[in-house]
Amino acid sequence: MSKKHSDDEDFSFQEAIKGIKPLKNDRIDLYAHNRNTRPFRDKNDYSELKQNSVLSDDWETANVTGEEFIFFARSGVQLKLQKQLRQGKLAIEEHHDLHGLTSDDARDDLQAFIQFARQRQMRCVLLVHGKGYRANSEQPVLKNKVNIWLRQHPDVLAFSSAQPRDGGTGAVYILIRKDS
């Protein structure tokens, strides 16, 4: 190939791509969640839902660390649905953050949040509990409590630590029981 011919090709190529902007990311996230969900913050939505606590702190379960993955599913939950939950492929319909709450307040908020979601026929919600880095103990307090409470709650079919895009091991996806 001659030098002149190569220069002509370079020039025509440069002319052809003029005005084109490079893609910032060529990866498509097939399971991106709707970011229009509002955080479960409006106390008016669930203040009347507060009820006597049915969740106990006395359940026997192994403590987990802040970075540890947690998962639970009741018998009868399909394996495919469990896998979708763990992979974060289910649409998140609502989310709530427990950061900064005391253990008692967190338990009340958790119960009200699940009841709120169930009354509105939500299937999958996200609960942020944190990893316990600011805790005075070696173990994360709220993460361990949430792990115990969700196993006891009759309306929770399954839960799993979230994907990194949704909070990682500092959050859980919760699969809520449907009305029969």
Number of helices: 5
Going across the biggest sheet, name each strand in turn.
1-4-5-3-2
Q: State Rg.
A: 23 Å
Distance separating the two termini: 75 Å
Q: Which residue ranges are poorly predicted, with pLDDT under 50 across at least 5 consecutive positions?
A: none
Q: Give the structural class.
A: alpha+beta
Q: Topology as H/E string? A: HHEHEHEHEE
Count of individual domains: 1
Strand fraction equals 5-15%
Helix content: 25-40%
| CATH topology category name | Ribosomal Protein S8, Chain: A, domain 1
Overview of this structure, please?
- The model has no long low-confidence stretch (mean pLDDT 81).
- This protein has 5 helices and 5 strands.
- It has a single domain, classed as Ribosomal Protein S8, Chain: A, domain 1, CATH 3.30.1370.110.
- By secondary structure, the protein is α+β, with helices and mostly antiparallel strands.
- Helix 4 (103-119) packs across helix 5.
- The chain has a 5-stranded mixed beta sheet, with helices on both faces.
- Helices cover 31% and strands 13% of the residues.
Topology, element by element:
Layout: H1 3-16, H2 43-46, E1 71-73, H3 79-86, E2 95-97, H4 103-119, E3 124-128, H5 141-152, E4 156-161, E5 171-176
Parallel strand pairs: 2-3
Antiparallel strand pairs: 1-4, 3-5, 4-5
Helix pairs in contact: 4-5
Tags for this entry?
5 helices, five-stranded mixed β-sheet, 31% helix, elongated, Ribosomal Protein S8, Chain: A, domain 1, alpha+beta, 180 residues
